[in-house]
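1st attempt posting a full record on here, be nice pls
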Amino acid sequence: METLAALDLHDATLASELLDFAQDCLLECFDFATCGAQPGSAERLRLPRCERVNVTLRTLGRLRGSMSAEGETLGEQIRRAVEQAATDKRFHSRLTAIEVPQVDIELWLQTGSEPVTAEDIEGGRCLELGVHGVAIRMAGKSAYYKPSVPITSGKRSLQSLLSGLSRKAGLPGDAWKDPSAELLRTHWTKMSRDAVRNPHQAPGERVVSREMVGRWLQESVRYLVNSRQASASFTYLYDPIEDVEVLEPANRVRAAGCLYSLSRFRDSPHAIFADPGFDEALRGLADAQLRRTVVQPDGSRVMPEADSGVAPKLGATALLTLAIGGDWLSLQSGSIYEELFASVSQAQQPSGRFLTHFGCPEEDPRSSEFFSGQSLLTLVQRAERGDAGVLDRCALAFASYRRQFQTAPASAFVGWHVDVWSRLALLTRRSDYADFAFEQTDWLLAMQVQSGSFSTWIGGFCNSGSMPKYSSIVFLEATVRAYILAHTLGDDARADRYRLAIELGVRFCDRLRLDRSQYAWFRNPARCEGGIALSTLDRRVRCDVPQHFITLCLALLEAEGIY
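the predicted structure (as tokens):
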């Protein structure tokens, strides 16, 4: 008889056998006909028991049962856990026969555990949320959480997770800090039908190809287009676990950024693969944003804020200018592009710097980190289309913004300015522009997690030991832009260093995708495809995250020598 330790628990054949057995156990609970065990399966099911086996049942993303059970063999553990889960009454009602054909079964095998202390956990380096499980025992009471709990329950911090675990055990919320509490870090293998269908598709571990990036691009374009609402605005924040829109105040900067990414896609060679109706949708989204703009007495045009009492942000007008300035949308918009561009141009001061809000002579320091790069990109876009006159405006801005970065470097600044100065360096072959793009990128790469014990952090960008999040997408695009520049200039050593960082970064970004292996957790999987999450734990999708992922994919496909 095989031993559990000798088996590859990630093997698709084994997973399929165990899931088939769990499915048959569920059918037997309702006296339905079963498929019957496959030859050799019985031997597998007599394997020694795991530390714990959990069976979780979901229908259409709704949790319907989740229980573990004791048993002398793995097969007994699975059978009894299925029976317990099928009669679990904690989730509104017990599972009924009509739901059985729709049930998604998750099989969780706890393969190991070790004791940890509250001090270890509070130190932040021994428990990786979303990867490790955790258990508590104290005063004859106990409870455990699987690794998925921080993702599916909203308990995304160690404090909230362990407080919830303590209360689940019938203990006070701070019991986990008690010296007499026994805490365990647990290790699990998850088996599900989606994983069986895609046995070598673990996010963040797969080998990424050019074809794969192209598919990701199409999916995220489709997500943004499909997220448009009756008002032709984008769904700002979406929770796929609950299938709800999280209502937030309108953000016209981010809406314009989404339109910019779709315009960039439309102008790329990859638009030939767009879904039927894409052009009509893009035109409608552009028209809706243009209807919100206001023409000034001097003939320029700006995007006002939703609150008429707030000075219009330069970023919203700059990003809309970039979107409408694309090759395809500019043909549809007549003189409107020139009116928008005039507004951005007039926001540039004699010093070369840009105002951050129309009508306000004082810059907002935080806004200047974003809006200056977005405004300079409108000049770069013009220059790339043959308007050499704007290059003097870029040169006028250079010294001031380089000094801003060198005095107070900020990642928000780098995300846009590397794009600006790398593209200008390619246009003008000015070495100082190239040096500035490289200087920013080298500073940024010091924040990339390239090793460490937390596997899901590798490749992401973070400050002060915090978890990498969606901003890593922006920083990775900047790195790709710097790589294109280094590769074009023949700086092979620098290009090789950037390429390694890009390979790690792309794998991290893959973990942010709403992956098929998680679709059983989502109540409306069709709405989720192409969505990019805020973090590996927080699976909500804010519209600007797939926006930046689209422009990242376009940059990756533009770059030579990566794939």
